[in-house]
Amino acid sequence: MKLSDFDFDLPKSLIAQFPSEKRTDSKLLVAGDEIVDATFSELDDFLRAGDLLVLNDTRVIPARLFGQKESGGKVEILIERLLSDTQALAMIKASRAPKIGSFVVLENGQRAEVVDKSCGLYTLSFSGTAILDCLNEVGHVPLPPYIERGDKKEDLSRYQTVYAQNDGAVAAPTAGLHFDEALLARLQKQGIEHTFVTLHVGAGTFQPVKVDNIKDHHMHSEVYQVSVEAAEKIKQTRAKGGRIVAVGTTAVRTLESMALKG
């Protein structure tokens, strides 16, 4: 398949720069025997008792950092994944690539050492406070490139699902952004259960496809986790004839990976 096979026109005026005031007011397109243009608040009209929603409970971290090299050059860091409390993989944007062994001084004065580089990603070692503490102090929400504005304080909560639990994603599992607590409770009353898996969306989600043949495009790996309880709930639902409804591509990737690994 060629990249051009996926070309289509999307006017910028149709790309929302801010979310709907109410999560469930978002639009819902249902593709079945016919195409239905609905709103997300009507989701229960298209589900039935015995169905199981699989939700990704990853939590977006404020993964974009700004700082300076020791020479004074400006640096932008996008954390790709956390390796430990003090180490992370990251993409770095600078006028000149930082050297191994050099330091980046962040906006709060904390220093991050560049200790390695592999496959376009740098390994950074943070001194002082833990990385998450640093991100919560001076990090910025890494909004998708089609959101052409700076991040705002409210993005910390709105660019996050209401059921987010586990820190580690650099982008939200966007299909889940449209659920609110009331909708989840209403679905459960109707016998539509849900369970959680975790897939930490990596910075590769922002990586543009630059090759003509999409099979030549290299995607970064991502970390996922499926609990025994979630796997058992999925198994029981299938045994009873219920439908497994993966909420978004991150949940789909997790279930596909789980199935491939047996």
Mind explaining what this structure looks like?
With 262 residues, the protein is of the alpha+beta class. It folds into two domains: 39-60 and 148-261, QueA-like; 64-138, Thrombin, subunit H (Beta Barrel), CATH 2.40.10. Helix content is 18%, strand content 29%. The chain has five helices and 14 strands. The protein has helices spanning 131-138, 155-158, 181-189, 228-239, 249-261, and strands spanning 27-31, 35-39, 52-56, 58-60, 64-69, 74-82, 87-94, 103-106, 111-118, 121-126, 166-169, 193-200, 223-225, 244-246. A six-stranded antiparallel beta barrel has the order 5-6-7-10-9-8. A four-stranded mixed sheet has the order 13-12-3-14. Strand 8 and strand 9 form a beta hairpin. The longest helix has 13 residues, at 249-261. The mean pLDDT is 94.
